[in-house]
Amino acid sequence: MPSLMGILLVVCLLLLGALTLFNRHLVRACTWFVLFALTVSFAWWWMGFPWLALIELLLGAVLTGAFLFHALGVGPAARRPQGMLARWHDHPPPRGRALMRLLPALAMLAMLGLALDDLAEGSGSAALWSGGLGLLGLGLWAFVLHRHLIRRLLGFNVIGTGIFLILISLTGEAERAAAHGLVITGLVVAMLGTALGALLIRRLEALEARHGRQHAAGGHAI
Fold first, then answer.
1. How far, rounded to the nearest angstrom, does the alpha carbon of residue 210 sit from its chain's CA centroid?
2. How far is CA 94 from CA 54, 97, 109, 178, 181, in A?
3. Domain tally, the chain
4. Sequence-ordered list of residues with C-beta below 8 angstroms from that of 145, at least 6 positions apart, any chain
């Protein structure tokens, strides 16, 4: 039977993941992500992975959070999002199209859930893999609904956390060290992917701003 603390942690992660992915205010969404990463760090510590908790704190909460705010153009010198993409309103696709995009992801999640139910049967980790599956579903849903690049970066990180939780839920004592190493590798890759995405977003915003200035100058010249 899963412990009450484990269930509470999974519920908190799902709630914070949903707030991260579906908050309409980008700065608040990134702030929720930092709180989400801090909760993940505490979850690793509670599960007996202190080094993993420390790495999650550094790579997930501090560095990934800093890159997300950098993508928004928010920092000590600028408290509000800067650039065209930071102010871009993300219109969701029509319901029919969103449903058609979501159906393959739902089918994959259903098959994955059935497989995990068999693999983790009797291991007492049902809450853990269920939470990982829930985060994976939330991240995929966000990819379907959102076209905004920063929101997709957030979804990428939430999906990664879901995969890490599923991986840990399937490992026993003998495989703990290997699972630990795989999750650390995944955290490094996720942080580097977020850093690359943030830098590309800033570059795209600079190009958009230059194009807007050139367009305005051309209009005045006419």
1. 30
2. 42, 5, 22, 43, 42
3. 1
4. 22, 92, 93, 98
Strand partners, 78: 75
**pTM beyond cutoff 0.85:** no
pLDDT, tens digit only, all 222 positions of the chain: 457 888 899 999 999 999 999 888 888 999 999 999 999 999 999 988 898 999 999 999 999 999 999 888 877 666 667 666 666 666 666 666 666 666 766 676 666 666 666 655 545 567 787 888 889 888 888 877 888 888 889 999 999 999 898 888 877 776 777 888 888 999 999 999 999 999 998 888 888 767 666 666 665 554
70, 152, 69, 141: which is closest to 99 by C-alpha?
Answer: 141
Name the residue range of residue 43's domain.
4-221
